[in-house]
Model the fold of this input.
Amino acid sequence: MLIRSWDRGDQAEWREWLAAGRDFGLLAANGAPGDGPVLVPTHFLLDPDAGEILLHLAAPNPIWAALRADPQVTLSVTDDYVFAPGHWRGEPGTPTSYYASVQFACTAEIVEDAAGKAAILNRQLAHFQPETPEVRVVPGAEPFGPLLTGLRGLRLTVREVRAKFKYDDKKPAADQFAIAGLLAERGQGLDQGARTQLLRRNARRAGAPASGRAGRAERSEPPATRPGGCPAG
Done:
């Protein structure tokens, strides 16, 4: 993923973005020679402080053979993406895509013992289904213990995180701010999510709290820019 200096996301930024309910991504492993990569859409549980990601997949999944051959994988999460028409962006009228994306470069460890798989499943249940704390997986016990043979756990140790928030931070801040109004007017698909990210990035450039900026009407004064309209960080 190409990341320019103006759309690089820092650790606090990508952590907050993912913590807002973004826990579904695309896991990519290297395929056999002559084949393409193995891609698996999946929910996952991120533990950023421990530097690991936990998930499970069905035993017949083709990714297991790929992981045994090469445990280096990438987990990618992309959201808040929209198309920005060229006539929104000033001369020369070049259209672009806005999006946020975080990629984790990881080393995968396959978990096959029953206790290890149950531990992963229970952590996922606590995260995704906290309203039913009584539902837990116990190896050998009904109703879920006997089902453990049909799946494998996966622990990903994070080696590197690459985060990109592509929302025209390279343009003058006033121009970037004006596009938020156009996204609000269009109001389709993921426009609202993209607008929220654009306003948040715009507020960072002005040194203002993102929540305060996002709550303003688009007709208020745009934020001041640094000389040359460069992003603040």
